[in-house]
Amino acid sequence: MAGELLIGEVARRTGRTVATLRHWEAIGLLAAPRRINGRRHYPPSVLDRIAVIELAQRAGFRLTEVAELLTAAPDKPPGPAWRTLAARKRAELDELAATIDAMRELLAHLAACGCDSVAGCAAVAQACRSERAVGGA
């Protein structure tokens, strides 16, 4: 069919590897394409699908979550499942941001502190106590 893309062309246009595209097909992120003489022939719309997958990944979604988002109702507007996953991902990112902020604060202290050693630094000791309390160790 005119306009169809072979897997190598899809890989070249998207910057993804052929192995990645095959994996995404195997886990259901990409529909199995037509095969002619054993070669995959993708419709041009696969490029849009891959762009959505990449956007979701940049937003922090794991492939299993992307699959959930895309298989819920691929031809309908996002519904409750999408909003639930987005809210959950936002909470995860907020938690990660708080952790990163605490790490930056500690690193800023370490860069400016006058302690003779890291082991003798009160800020490091406090950070270790906090980490143990959070980790439950």
Summary, kept brief:
The chain is mainly α. It has helices at residues 7-14, 18-26, 46-58, 63-72, 80-112, 122-135, and strands at residues 5-6, 34-36, 39-42.
SSE inventory with pairings:
Blueprint: E1 5-6, H1 7-14, H2 18-26, E2 34-36, E3 39-42, H3 46-58, H4 63-72, H5 80-112, H6 122-135
Notes on the structure:
This protein is 64% helix and 7% strand. With 137 residues, the protein is mainly α. A hairpin with a 2-residue loop joins β2 (34-36) and β3.
The CATH architecture term of the domain at 5-76 is Orthogonal Bundle
Structural class: mainly alpha
How many helix segments? 6
Q: Main sheet, how many strands, which sense, barrel?
A: 3 strands, antiparallel
CATH topology of the domain at 5-76: Multidrug-efflux Transporter Regulator, Chain: A, Domain 2
Supply the CATH class of the domain at 5-76: Mainly Alpha
Strand content: 5-15%
Helix content: 55-70%
- Tally of strands: 3
Helix and strand string, N-terminal first?
Answer: EHHEEHHHH
Descriptive terms for the model:
6 helices, mainly alpha, elongated, three-stranded antiparallel sheet, single chain, Multidrug-efflux Transporter Regulator, Chain: A, Domain 2, 137 residues
